[in-house]
Amino acid sequence: MIERIIFTLIFLLRLSILAHGSALTTAIAANERLCFYADVDKAGEKIGFYFAVQSGGSFDIDFDVKDPNEKVLLDGERERQGDYVFTANTVGEYSFCFENDMSTLTEKLIDFDIMVESEPRREAPAKAGQISEHTSALEESIFRLNGMLMNIKRTQKHFHTRDNRGFSIVQSTQNRLFWYAIFESLAMVGMAIFQVYVLQTFFTKTGRRYKV
Protein backbone atom coordinates (compact mmCIF):
# COMPACT_ATOMS: atom_id res chain seq x y z
CA MET A 1 0.00 0.00 0.00
CA ILE A 2 2.82 2.39 0.87
CA GLU A 3 4.64 1.55 -2.34
CA ARG A 4 1.48 2.26 -4.32
CA ILE A 5 1.11 5.67 -2.66
CA ILE A 6 4.76 6.48 -3.31
CA PHE A 7 4.40 5.43 -6.94
CA THR A 8 1.28 7.61 -7.31
CA LEU A 9 3.07 10.65 -5.90
CA ILE A 10 6.08 10.13 -8.17
CA PHE A 11 3.86 9.71 -11.22
CA LEU A 12 1.87 12.84 -10.41
CA LEU A 13 5.09 14.77 -9.93
CA ARG A 14 6.39 13.59 -13.31
CA LEU A 15 3.08 14.50 -14.92
CA SER A 16 3.18 17.98 -13.44
CA ILE A 17 6.71 18.77 -14.60
CA LEU A 18 6.20 17.31 -18.07
CA ALA A 19 4.02 20.23 -19.05
CA HIS A 20 4.93 23.87 -18.97
CA GLY A 21 3.14 26.81 -20.49
CA SER A 22 2.17 30.43 -20.21
CA ALA A 23 -1.27 32.02 -19.99
CA LEU A 24 -1.15 35.71 -20.85
CA THR A 25 -3.35 38.62 -21.78
CA THR A 26 -1.91 41.28 -24.04
CA ALA A 27 -3.06 44.36 -25.92
CA ILE A 28 -2.17 44.77 -29.59
CA ALA A 29 -2.33 48.27 -31.02
CA ALA A 30 -3.58 49.08 -34.50
CA ASN A 31 -1.19 48.01 -37.29
CA GLU A 32 1.01 46.20 -34.76
CA ARG A 33 2.54 42.73 -35.02
CA LEU A 34 3.40 40.99 -31.77
CA CYS A 35 5.17 37.62 -31.43
CA PHE A 36 5.73 35.19 -28.58
CA TYR A 37 8.08 32.22 -28.46
CA ALA A 38 8.21 28.75 -26.92
CA ASP A 39 11.18 26.37 -26.79
CA VAL A 40 10.90 22.68 -27.62
CA ASP A 41 13.63 20.50 -26.13
CA LYS A 42 13.00 17.32 -28.09
CA ALA A 43 11.10 16.21 -31.16
CA GLY A 44 7.67 14.69 -30.63
CA GLU A 45 6.47 17.05 -27.93
CA LYS A 46 2.89 18.28 -28.06
CA ILE A 47 2.22 22.01 -28.32
CA GLY A 48 -1.14 23.45 -27.32
CA PHE A 49 -2.09 26.90 -28.58
CA TYR A 50 -5.23 28.75 -27.56
CA PHE A 51 -6.28 32.35 -28.13
CA ALA A 52 -9.41 34.46 -27.98
CA VAL A 53 -9.99 38.12 -28.74
CA GLN A 54 -11.56 39.64 -25.63
CA SER A 55 -12.30 43.16 -26.85
CA GLY A 56 -11.74 45.55 -29.71
CA GLY A 57 -13.43 46.07 -33.06
CA SER A 58 -15.11 42.95 -34.41
CA PHE A 59 -13.20 40.67 -32.01
CA ASP A 60 -10.95 39.34 -34.80
CA ILE A 61 -7.19 39.05 -35.32
CA ASP A 62 -4.68 37.61 -37.79
CA PHE A 63 -2.24 34.99 -36.50
CA ASP A 64 0.45 32.56 -37.62
CA VAL A 65 2.56 29.85 -35.99
CA LYS A 66 6.02 29.00 -37.37
CA ASP A 67 8.58 26.33 -36.52
CA PRO A 68 12.32 27.01 -36.01
CA ASN A 69 12.81 26.76 -39.81
CA GLU A 70 10.26 29.56 -40.43
CA LYS A 71 7.80 27.06 -41.86
CA VAL A 72 4.17 28.13 -41.31
CA LEU A 73 2.33 25.49 -39.29
CA LEU A 74 -0.87 27.39 -38.56
CA ASP A 75 -2.30 30.67 -39.81
CA GLY A 76 -5.58 32.48 -40.02
CA GLU A 77 -7.13 35.83 -40.89
CA ARG A 78 -9.81 37.66 -38.94
CA GLU A 79 -10.18 34.80 -36.47
CA ARG A 80 -12.08 35.42 -33.25
CA GLN A 81 -10.55 32.50 -31.33
CA GLY A 82 -8.76 29.20 -31.83
CA ASP A 83 -7.71 26.07 -29.95
CA TYR A 84 -5.03 23.91 -31.58
CA VAL A 85 -2.79 20.99 -30.63
CA PHE A 86 0.05 19.84 -32.88
CA THR A 87 3.24 17.78 -32.67
CA ALA A 88 6.59 19.56 -32.72
CA ASN A 89 8.82 17.58 -35.08
CA THR A 90 11.72 20.03 -34.92
CA VAL A 91 13.73 21.02 -31.86
CA GLY A 92 14.07 24.76 -31.35
CA GLU A 93 12.10 27.96 -30.92
CA TYR A 94 8.53 28.18 -32.20
CA SER A 95 6.95 31.57 -32.84
CA PHE A 96 3.32 32.53 -32.22
CA CYS A 97 2.48 35.89 -33.81
CA PHE A 98 -0.60 38.12 -33.78
CA GLU A 99 -1.15 40.96 -36.23
CA ASN A 100 -3.73 43.70 -35.92
CA ASP A 101 -3.30 44.96 -39.46
CA MET A 102 -6.99 45.30 -40.35
CA SER A 103 -7.56 48.00 -37.71
CA THR A 104 -6.42 51.60 -38.14
CA LEU A 105 -7.46 52.89 -34.71
CA THR A 106 -8.85 50.02 -32.64
CA GLU A 107 -6.72 48.19 -30.08
CA LYS A 108 -7.34 44.46 -29.55
CA LEU A 109 -7.13 42.68 -26.19
CA ILE A 110 -6.14 39.01 -26.58
CA ASP A 111 -6.09 36.19 -24.07
CA PHE A 112 -3.82 33.32 -25.16
CA ASP A 113 -2.20 30.20 -23.78
CA ILE A 114 0.88 28.36 -25.08
CA MET A 115 1.67 24.96 -23.59
CA VAL A 116 4.50 22.58 -24.43
CA GLU A 117 3.78 19.10 -23.12
CA SER A 118 5.72 15.84 -23.24
CA GLU A 119 3.78 12.60 -23.39
CA PRO A 120 4.59 10.50 -20.31
CA ARG A 121 5.94 7.04 -21.03
CA ARG A 122 5.32 3.99 -18.96
CA GLU A 123 8.34 2.55 -17.25
CA ALA A 124 8.82 -0.98 -16.01
CA PRO A 125 8.08 -1.39 -12.29
CA ALA A 126 10.97 -1.79 -9.88
CA LYS A 127 9.79 -5.24 -8.83
CA ALA A 128 7.78 -7.22 -11.31
CA GLY A 129 4.41 -8.42 -10.05
CA GLN A 130 4.40 -6.11 -7.06
CA ILE A 131 2.81 -2.90 -8.35
CA SER A 132 2.32 -3.72 -12.02
CA GLU A 133 -1.25 -4.82 -11.35
CA HIS A 134 -2.19 -1.39 -10.04
CA THR A 135 -0.14 0.67 -12.49
CA SER A 136 -2.43 0.46 -15.51
CA ALA A 137 -5.63 1.32 -13.63
CA LEU A 138 -3.88 4.09 -11.72
CA GLU A 139 -2.46 5.69 -14.87
CA GLU A 140 -5.83 5.49 -16.61
CA SER A 141 -7.49 7.21 -13.66
CA ILE A 142 -4.86 9.96 -13.64
CA PHE A 143 -5.14 10.58 -17.37
CA ARG A 144 -8.92 10.56 -17.11
CA LEU A 145 -8.76 13.19 -14.36
CA ASN A 146 -6.29 15.19 -16.42
CA GLY A 147 -8.65 15.12 -19.40
CA MET A 148 -11.57 16.23 -17.24
CA LEU A 149 -9.52 19.11 -15.82
CA MET A 150 -8.53 20.20 -19.32
CA ASN A 151 -12.20 20.19 -20.38
CA ILE A 152 -13.08 22.30 -17.36
CA LYS A 153 -10.26 24.68 -18.20
CA ARG A 154 -11.50 25.06 -21.80
CA THR A 155 -15.04 25.67 -20.55
CA GLN A 156 -13.79 28.34 -18.15
CA LYS A 157 -11.89 30.02 -20.99
CA HIS A 158 -15.00 29.92 -23.17
CA PHE A 159 -17.19 31.59 -20.54
CA HIS A 160 -14.42 34.05 -19.69
CA THR A 161 -14.24 35.08 -23.34
CA ARG A 162 -18.02 35.40 -23.63
CA ASP A 163 -18.12 37.50 -20.46
CA ASN A 164 -15.40 39.85 -21.67
CA ARG A 165 -16.97 40.23 -25.11
CA GLY A 166 -20.38 40.89 -23.57
CA PHE A 167 -18.89 43.51 -21.26
CA SER A 168 -17.09 45.15 -24.19
CA ILE A 169 -20.31 45.29 -26.23
CA VAL A 170 -22.27 46.73 -23.29
CA GLN A 171 -19.57 49.33 -22.65
CA SER A 172 -19.46 50.32 -26.32
CA THR A 173 -23.26 50.59 -26.46
CA GLN A 174 -23.28 52.65 -23.26
CA ASN A 175 -20.72 55.08 -24.70
CA ARG A 176 -22.69 55.43 -27.91
CA LEU A 177 -25.93 56.08 -26.01
CA PHE A 178 -24.16 58.65 -23.84
CA TRP A 179 -22.81 60.63 -26.79
CA TYR A 180 -26.14 60.29 -28.62
CA ALA A 181 -27.92 61.75 -25.58
CA ILE A 182 -25.39 64.62 -25.43
CA PHE A 183 -25.86 65.34 -29.14
CA GLU A 184 -29.64 65.17 -28.81
CA SER A 185 -29.61 67.56 -25.85
CA LEU A 186 -27.37 70.03 -27.69
CA ALA A 187 -29.62 69.79 -30.75
CA MET A 188 -32.72 70.52 -28.66
CA VAL A 189 -31.06 73.50 -26.96
CA GLY A 190 -29.87 74.81 -30.32
CA MET A 191 -33.32 74.37 -31.82
CA ALA A 192 -34.92 76.23 -28.90
CA ILE A 193 -32.48 79.12 -29.25
CA PHE A 194 -33.10 79.24 -32.98
CA GLN A 195 -36.90 79.32 -32.50
CA VAL A 196 -36.62 82.12 -29.95
CA TYR A 197 -34.43 84.09 -32.34
CA VAL A 198 -36.83 83.57 -35.26
CA LEU A 199 -39.87 84.61 -33.21
CA GLN A 200 -38.07 87.63 -31.80
CA THR A 201 -36.94 88.70 -35.26
CA PHE A 202 -40.43 88.17 -36.71
CA PHE A 203 -42.22 90.28 -34.10
CA THR A 204 -39.55 92.98 -34.21
CA LYS A 205 -39.82 93.35 -37.99
CA THR A 206 -43.65 93.24 -37.85
CA GLY A 207 -43.70 95.97 -35.19
CA ARG A 208 -41.46 98.23 -37.26
CA ARG A 209 -43.48 97.65 -40.41
CA TYR A 210 -46.82 98.85 -38.89
CA LYS A 211 -45.39 101.50 -36.61
CA VAL A 212 -47.23 104.89 -36.89
UniProtKB/TrEMBL annotation:
Main location: membrane
Residue ranges of every copy of the GOLD domain listed in the record: 33-116
Keywords in alphabetical order: Membrane, Receptor, Signal, Transmembrane, Transmembrane helix
Signal peptide: 1-21
Bilayer disposition of the protein: Single-pass membrane protein; Single-pass type I membrane protein
PROSITE patterns linked to this entry: GOLD (PS50866)
Top-level taxon of origin: Eukaryota
Matching Pfam families: EMP24_GP25L
Keyword Nucleotide-binding in annotation: no
InterPro entries (UniProt xref): Emp24-like, GOLD_dom, GOLD_dom_sf
Transmembrane spans: 177-199
Similarity field: Belongs to the EMP24/GP25L family.
Protein name: Endosomal cargo receptor
Natural source organism: Lentinula edodes (Shiitake mushroom)
Organism classification: Eukaryota, Fungi, Dikarya, Basidiomycota, Agaricomycotina
